[in-house]
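Weekly modeling sync, notes
Attendees: S.R. (lead), two postdocs, one rotation student

Agenda item 3: backlog of single-chain predictions. S.R. asked that every request posted to the team notebook include the full sequence so nobody has to chase files. The rotation student volunteered to paste the first one in as an example of the format we agreed on. Action items at the bottom.

Example entry:
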Amino acid sequence: MFLIKEMPHKERPRERFLEYGREALSTHELIAIILRTGTKRTSVLELSKSIFYRYPSIKALNQASVKELTDLPGMGSAKAIQLLSALELGKRLFAESFPKNVKLLHPEKVYEYLKADLEMGTQEMFYALYLDTKGALIKKQLLFIGSLSSALVHPREIFKHAVTLSAASIIIVHNHPSGDPTPSAADVRITKTMVQNGKLMDIEILDHVVIGKGKYYSMRQHNIID
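Predicted structure, as returned to the notebook:
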């Protein structure tokens, strides 16, 4: 098994990190630092390159499962868990980069806030963003996973959290794994049901934003919500 410290000095990612800074390292070098070791037949840099070439982007790598990663030669479950844990920390850093009183009243802001969670998702995920009277975010809540239907997405679950949090309004967000954010008939029907329930409870549904790959669809901007 080849350790990074056994490689020529100029090829050691850790030494390059210390000398030039983390920004100077390539993606596969950063992966190599996380993995630490290779195998008897493959150096850690070769292993990290094989991962980098297998997945076209960090977003795609983030969607990989432990099982998918362990199918790669030289990748055991421990290494897969290390790598996915590092990516999860990156996601959480991105989420924390938003101020606590972030305002998400424009759909582009909603998209920027949730794209790390939803843009590359392989199944539909349904979030509710609960806002105070000034439009500042109180809480982001993942409510459902799976294809949206009126049986799955029940107003009771959405408004239960709103009452608990004393939210004044809600923004609904979900993704389309196909990449096309155009809402389906079920999406529109569910949205209109939520809007009507919100009026009865005096908790406004401000928008329903559907996130695809690199783009979004705002139902308020398209006058589905008025």
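Discussion: group reviewed the output briefly. The radius of gyration is 22 Å.
Action items: rotation student to repeat for the remaining queue; S.R. to check formatting next week.
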